[in-house]
Amino acid sequence: MIWAISSLAILSIGIALPLCLSRVPRIALVVSMSALFIGGLLLLAASVPVLLRAGDVAPTHIAWSVPMGHVSLSLDGLSAWFLMTIGLLAVCTAPYSVAYMRPYVGREPVERFGALLCMLVASLIVFVCAFDVVVFLIGWELMTLSAFLLVIFHDERPDVRRGAWMYLIATHLATGLCLAPLLALVYGATGTTGFDTIAQTLRGTDRNFLIAIFLLGVFGFGAKAGFFPLHIWLPAAHPVAPTPVSAFLSGVVVKMGIYGLLRLLTWLPPLPTACAGILLAVGIVSGVLGVLYALAQHDLKRLLAYHTIENIGIIAIAISMGMLGQAVNAPAVAALGYGGALLHVTNHALFKGLLFLSAGAVHHGTGTLAIERLGGLAHKTPVNALLFLAGAVAICGLPPLNGFVGEWVIYAGLVTGAQQSIGVSGGLPAVGVFSLALMGSLALACFAKVFGVVFLGAPRDPALSAHATPFAMKAAMAMPAIACACIGLAPGLWIPLTYSATSSLVGTDIEHVRHAYGSVLSWGTRLSWMAAVFLCVCTALALARRIASTTRSRAETPSRVTTWGCGYGYPTARMQYSATSFALPLIRGFRGLLWPEFRYAAPCGPFPGASHAETHVPDFAEHDVFAPLFRGIARASAMWRHFTWSGAPAAGTRASAAHERLGPLRTVVTNTVVALRRGAIQVYLLFIVITLILLFALEGLVFHRARISPGPTAPDSTVTTGQTQ
Question: β-pairing, 597-601 with 612-616?
Answer without folding.
Answer: antiparallel
